[in-house]
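>> received
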Amino acid sequence: MLKLGGHIDLIKRATGIPAALYTITTDPNLPISIRPRFALLSDSPRDVTDYGAQLVFADDPNRPSLTAADNVYRVPVHFDYLKDGDIVHIDGSQRRMNTLFRKGASNNSILLTEQCNHYCLMCSQPPKKIDDSHLLRRALDLVSLIPKDARRIAFTGGEPTLYGDRLIDLIRHAKIQLPHTSVDLLSNGRKFKDKDFASRFGKIGHPYCTVAIPVYSDDPVRHDYVVQAPGAFDETVRGILNLKRFGQRVEVRIVLHKQTIGRLRQTCEFLCRNLLFVDHVALMGLEITGFTRANLDLLWIDPYEYRHILSEAIETLNTYGMPASVYNHQLCVVNPDVEGNYRKSISDWKNEYIECCGACTRRSECGGFFSSSKMYRYSDHIKPYV
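>> returned
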């Protein structure tokens, strides 16, 4: 698991540099005119000036620094994954750095807010009642810095649509700045019940933008219970209908746990009979973080125990011609008839394998585990293919 944030120590300068975004470089000879936008990464301080920051890997806190540099930070070794083209946020006053974009990653998630109008039982990002609109402003700046050849980014929350038209401005900005980059917007979909808002969103016309919306049951009561928001099911379905009316790509997501697995086949049947025009359905394994830890007894079911239900659900989706994928599972706990829809999906920074996986002949095909699952709970039926 990669740590994307951490404390950094100021070697020189009495006060830290203002909070800002910097692109990582290991080149000490960049043109002076562009150096302020870059953070120079090296093993020891360089006798260069004008870079926005210098980031130094040094375990010895008494290691001397060169007098020419005045904004040098000692960074912990867990940031050793940083490469040229990665983008970090440095808050000098707080002595903190966060990695926001990694050029070599297949997908980068960008947090827009921790506010939400749901209180999902398995929320991985528990909501906070705070003004964190600085995250949206930072995202706008970040999109401008991301390389044009980036394959995919995702905007997450909280609930991003709480920003209203400011979110529309961000998606439009992403279309202009990154015209060939796929954009996933994770949303509960309820804001799109407003036909005018859905229309304005659809008029952006981003050809590679998908709104990913959860539908946890065909039973409105069950869905509303999972998200802890009365009336959410009806508003979510209306939101999906409006988005598709205005030509927007939509993915439906179902997180699989004890509260959703009992009606999974019926939920997939509901989607195929009523929402066959959505673009993709994702059946997703449980990530044991956030509220999931507190509600684990309420949510946990061994994936091996529901493997036949998962097979039935995939058969239903495939029969109707609905594009579908199985995410966040291990190959050894799903039936062979699911493998055609199986995807390696866990972000590399929080993806791990357990000890017995070392001998598995299919490890390269398997999605592995969330780091949190490895720590707290995973199937009792994990076994290597030999």
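>> Residues 108-346 form a domain with the TIM Barrel fold (CATH 3.20.20.70).
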